[in-house]
Description:
Layout: E1 3-7, H1 8-13, H2 15-25, E2 28-33, E3 36-41, H3 47-62, H4 68-72, H5 81-87
Parallel strand pairs: 1-2
Antiparallel strand pairs: 2-3
Amino acid sequence: MAxxxxxxxxxxxxxxxxxxxxxxxxxxxxxxxxGKPVARLVPIDDPRDHERRLLASWRDQAKPxxxxxxxxxxxxxxxxxxxxxxxxx
Length: 89
């Protein structure tokens, strides 16, 4: 993300064009007044990007809780399904 600095007066004159630039190029603009930063114009994230990051975070947190072997291999106690079914008859 590019960062650009614009004086408040220039921002006031070119506000709409600068907003379009931020949206299109995903730039960040720091607005200054008398040479000091007073505001920042940044693009808004796509809500779907936020959802994807949140889901990825949850998945990462759940990984230590999940036993991959338990999900990929049948339980050793129930490996002979035909014996299990026969015993229930």
